[in-house]
Amino acid sequence: MLPSGTDPTLNSSSDLGPKHVAIIMDGNGRWASLKNHARFFGHIRGASRISPIVRKSDELKIKALTLFAFSSENWKRPETEREVLWKLLLKFLKRQLPELKQNNVSLHVYGDISLLPSQVKEPLLEAVEELRSNTGLKLGFCVSYGSRDEILRGFKRYLLSLPAQTKVSDFVHEPIDLNQFLDTKDLGALSDVDLVLRTSGEQRVSNFLLWQSAYAEYVFLDKFWPDFTPQDLEDALKIYQSRTRRFGSVGK
Fold first, then answer.
1. Which of 132, 31, 131, 25 is nearest to 88 (CA)?
2. Would 12 be classed as within a structural domain?
3. Which residues participate in catalysis according to the annotation?
4. What pLDDT shows up at residue 163?
5. What is the CATH number of the domain that holds 173?
6. Lower CB count within 10 Å: N or C terminus of the chain?
7. 66, 65, 63: which is closest to 15 by C-alpha?
8. What's the whole-model pTM score?
């Protein structure tokens, strides 16, 4: 439901809408539990929500859509549940790759994918490569991802990029463009997130794109991810358009 005073119409201008939307797809397990199903049933239902949201994002002229699929903390989950998640990811790639290719969507993966089983990592990287030349919507999956870990890995990449024998005093006062060393570097100017959505009623960021979302707008929805619809995405964009982003200034 839209907050009171929110314009119920969505301005279709790409200049007014968010260019980069990131979604924390939360609530699969709780959705299943409320229906007296096993947790994996919620993941299956949740995975079915992804394709309609990708299509709607393209329709709404969103330039980049990033989905939190598997966090670095999710490795603590039972192996049987992780196996279900890997199977669903591979199933998505197999079924949706032709449509993504036809619709000019590129695929991006963020996170420490070195930890992934080879039977998951290899098809994932092959799909990224197959869609690399596409110039439309940039679809990103955060897999084995934690933002603190990403920032640390990015800073290490920065240090390794410095000339040999560099001293701390040589660069400590110089500005660092860390964006070019983070997992999202391929997004370029689109790496900054404009809108973060989280389903399930939880109101926290959960170590998700902390650097990229420094000035993002947040919308927290009570719906669990398996119930999330393209209309919910459109409503979230209306909320976004009703806000004034000041980026630390006093605004107009």
1. 25
2. no
3. 26, 74
4. 87
5. 3.40.1180.10
6. C
7. 63
8. 0.91
Question: How far is 199 from 222, CA to CA, in rounded Å?
Answer: 6
Distance CA 207, CA 196 (A): 13
Query: Could you tell me the end-to-end alpha-carbon distance of the chain, in angstroms, rounded to an integer?
Result: 28
- Answer yes or no: is 10 within a domain: no
| Residue that is written with structure tokens 């999202």 in the block | 184
Question: What's the token pair of residue 32?
Answer: 């299943």
Q: Which residues contact 182 (CB under 8 A, 6 or more apart)?
A: 150, 151, 154, 191, 211, 212
Quote the domain boundaries for residue 36.
20-242
DSSP string, 40-90: HHHHHHHHTTHHHHHHHHHHTT-SEEEEEEEEGGGGGS-HHHHHHHHHHHH
Tens of pLDDT along 180-228? 999 999 999 999 999 999 999 999 999 999 999 999 999 999 999 999 9
Q: What is the dihedral of CA 249, 138, 57, 217, to 10 degrees?
A: -20
Q: Are 197 and 206 in contact (CB under 8 A)?
A: no
Number of structural domains (the chain) is: 1
Query: By the 8 A CB rule, do 234 and 10 touch?
Result: yes
Pairing of strands 195-198, 217-220: parallel
- Copy the structure tokens of residue 90: 């591979």
129 conformational bin, left if phi > 0, alpha if psi -120 to 50, beta if neither: alpha
Task: Retrieve residue 168's tokens.
Answer: 């701390």
Q: Where are the alpha helices (DSSP H) in the chain?
A: 28-34, 39-47, 50-59, 79-102, 118-130, 147-161, 168-171, 230-242
Token readout for 45 is 């239902």
Answer yes or no: is 62 within a domain: yes
